[in-house]
Specification:
Elements: E1 16-18, E2 30-32, E3 35-40, H1 47-58, E4 61-63, H2 65-73, H3 81-100, E5 105-109, H4 119-129, E6 133-140, H5 143-150, H6 164-172, E7 185-188, H7 194-204, H8 211-214
Parallel strand pairs: 3-5, 3-6, 4-5, 6-7
Antiparallel strand pairs: 1-2
Helix pairs in contact: 1-7, 2-3, 3-4
Length: about 220
């Protein structure tokens, strides 16, 4: 009479989740869980340009800050109670729903005081509940370079801040003060081309073109 083998369970990496069906061996296949790449930094630091290159290299979807901001400005003044309330609600709901559907994405964010403190943590929890993970990337840039970029014509596309005098006034009054965000990676965009910064992000976070992750064809 043989001895019964003990039952052994191995922990499953939270970065992977089961897919429907099973392989011929009877073992369920696993795929990487969706990821939200949260790129944050001061105005004119190059976040959106870098984010576009990350998406081009990885196949991830782009959900930049101005998509929701521009939508709400049609109905609410910037910084008003309604604007602040619905902006965060849309950010959380839309990114949470995207992750639930299996879509990975890149999100850009400018830390400023009209955003309630703790938003990054609330997003992390919402994405985790949806089965995904948030990876935070901080973009730093020298103040001299930020001011040089502030008036660039390309910044008018999404109604970005383009007045150097207004930027200086807002900064002087503490408009861009926000609690520090713990980040997985830091990028200095002062003298580095956006494509180089994007490549560093893709490599450091092990992002890749994968239909099962992005929901898009390579």
């Amino acid at each position: 009479m043989g001895l019964a083998r003990p039952s052994v369970r191995f922990p499953i990496d939270p970065m992977f989740r089961k897919t429907r069906g099973s392989s011929r061996t009877g073992v369920q296949s696993r795929k990487p869980a969706p990821v939200v790449v949260f790129i944050h930094g001061p105005p004119a630091s190059g976040k959106l340009t870098i984010a576009k290159d990350v998406c081009a290299l990885s196949g991830l979807a782009l959900f930049h800050n101005h998509l929701v901001v521009d939508l709400l400005l049609a109905l609410f003044p910037f910084g008003s109670t309604g604007f602040v309330k619905h902006r965060e609600a849309l950010w959380l709901d839309l990114m949470g729903a995207a992750v639930e559907s299996g879509t990975s994405l890149v999100f850009t964010f400018t830390p400023e005081r009209s955003v309630k403190p703790g938003f990054p943590g609330r997003l992390r929890r919402r994405v985790a509940l949806a089965g995904g993970r948030v990876r935070f990337v901080r973009v730093r840039c020298a103040e001299k370079q930020i001011e040089a970029r502030m008036t660039a014509g390309s910044r008018r596309t999404h109604g970005k801040l383009v007045s150097l005098d207004l930027y200086r006034e807002l900064k002087r009054n503490g408009a861009f003060e926000y609690p520090p965000i713990d980040s997985d990676l830091e990028i200095d965009s002062t003298a580095v081309r956006p494509r180089e910064s994007a490549t560093k992000i893709v490599d450091a976070l092990s992002l890749c073109r994968d239909v099962s992750i992005t929901g898009k064809t390579p």
